[in-house]
Fold:
Amino acid sequence: MVHPDDLRHTEIALNNGSGAMPALGFGTLIPDPVATKNATKAALEAGFRLLDTAERYRTEREVGEAMQEVFKEGKIKREDVFVVTKLWNTNHRPERVKPAIEASLQKLKLDFLDLYLIHTPFAFQPGSEQDPRDANGNVIYDKGVTLQDTWTAMEGLVSEGKCKAIGLSDVSLEQVQDIVKAARTKPAVVHVESHPYLPEWDLLNYCKENGIVLQAFAALGHSSEPSLLKDPVITAIAQRANKTPAQVLLAWAIQRGTAPLTTSKTPSRIRENFEVSALPDDAIREISDGVTSRVRFNAVVKTGVPGFIPREK
Ligand SMILES: NC(=O)c1ccc[n+]([C@@H]2O[C@H](COP(=O)([O-])OP(=O)(O)OC[C@H]3O[C@@H](n4cnc5c(N)ncnc54)[C@H](OP(=O)(O)O)[C@@H]3O)[C@@H](O)[C@H]2O)c1
Structure:
C-alpha cells in the first residue's frame, strides 16, 4: 500500500519509453525576474522536481540560473529534475521549431529537455514579436501552417535527442484526437487548465485510455474569483483533514490521476504546496461530485493569447 505521505513523490509513466514525470510540479509564470529565480530555488529546495517554464513567460534564463546555483550546491543533480518548456505561437513554422528549442536550451543552460510542449494550437505571424498585432490591435495569425505540420517538426526533436518527450498545451479533446490519429510519436502530455471548477473529465478519460498524462495548470485557481481556495466543499474537507485548502486541491488532482502545477513567489506557500498527502477516497469523491460550479479562468484556449501574462507596453 502507498503511504499517504508518499503522494507528493508520485511519478507517472510516460508513453514511448521516455521515463516518468513527477505528478506535482512547480510553474514559473512569475513576472518579476528576481522573484522567478528565488521562487525556483525555493521550489527545488522544498522538494519539487518538475519545473515548468515557457519561451513566452520570458523566465527561462532565471530558471536556468536557479537550477545552476542549486546544482552547484551538490544536493540535486540535473537528472533529478524534470524540465518542461514550450514552443511559442510565433515559432510554429517547421523550420522555426529546432532554432526555438535550441534558444530555450541555451537560456536554460541545458543539453536536453525532459518535455517540450506546443504552447497553444494557434500559430501567430512568425517573427521575434511574441504578440503580433495589426493596426486595430487584433492578433495576426499565421494561416500557412497546421498543428500537424508543427507536430511533425516536434517529433524530429525527439529523434535528435533535443527532448525526451513532446506534448500539447491549451488544446481541445478533438485537437488531441486528431494529433494522436496522425502522429508517429503520440503526445506524452496534454497540459491544460484544470481544477474542480474545470475538471475536464472527458479529456482526462481519453488521456488515460491513450497513456497520455494530463498536466493541470491553475490547480489552485490562479488567485482568481470565484476563489477555489474558499470553496465551502474544499474548506470543509481541509478543516476535517487538518490540511490547507491548497493541499486538498493538490491531493485531489494527484489522486484522480492528473499532474497539477502550482506557482508561488512566497516561500511558505511553496513549502505548503509540496507538503501534500493523500486524502481518503470519500473526500476525493466529495470534491468530484460535490463541487458543481464551472469556471474557466484563462481564455487562452479561445485565442492563443495567454490570459495570465500581462500585456507589455
Ligand atoms: N499553458 C498555459 O497556457 C498555462 C497557463 C497558465 C499557467 N501555466 C503554468 O501553470 C503554472 C501554474 O499556474 P497558476 O499560476 O495559475 O497556478 P496557481 O497555483 O493556481 O495560482 C498561482 C497563484 O496562487 C497563489 N498561491 C499559490 N499557492 C498558494 C497557497 N498555498 N495558498 C494561497 N495562495 C496560493 C499565488 O500567490 P503568490 O505567488 O503571491 O504566493 C499565485 O497568485 C504556471 O506557473 C505556468 O507554469 C500554463
